[in-house]
Amino acid sequence: MADLLTNDRKRSNLPSYIVGFILSIGFTLWAYFSVVNHTFSGKSLLVWLLALAVAQFAVQLIYFMHIGREAKPRWKQLTIILMIVFVLIVLLGSIWVMYNLNDRMSPLQMQNYMTEQASGGL
User: What is the pLDDT of residues 17-57, one digit of tens each?
Assistant: First the structure.
């Protein structure tokens, strides 16, 4: 009997998962083609990509984590806080690594790298 109830719940969530998947793919492709086609430039591109990232985050929360549909919102709050912490760790860690790589590369290394990239070498 319990298996039937969980199967019914999974089936009732299927349209939500499909809509969430389509929206996620749509936002990802929208961001990709915005960059490839040079739709925006400079800071406006960054603002646009940030807006799409926030929209993607909202889709993940609403359609996959079912925020607002749980009887125990306390657990959902903890989940949201944990997700925000993970996003900040990845974002700040990536920025830190890129800054340090750029800062620690000598001008000679930079020139060699640029020459190698221009000649098509790996």
Answer: 999 999 999 999 999 999 999 998 888 998 999 999 989 98
pTM of the model: 0.59
Coil, strand or helix: which one is 52? Answer: helix
Q: What b/e string do you get for 33-57 counting C-beta neighbours within 10 Å, with b at 16 or more?
A: eeeeeeeeeeeeeeebeeebeebbe
In Å, how far are 13, 19, 66 from 72, measured between CA atoms? 18, 24, 12
Structure tokens that stand for 31 in this block: 């961001």
Selection from 57, 72, 73, 52 nearest residue 20 by Cα: 57
Q: Which two tokens stand for residue 100?
A: 């340090």
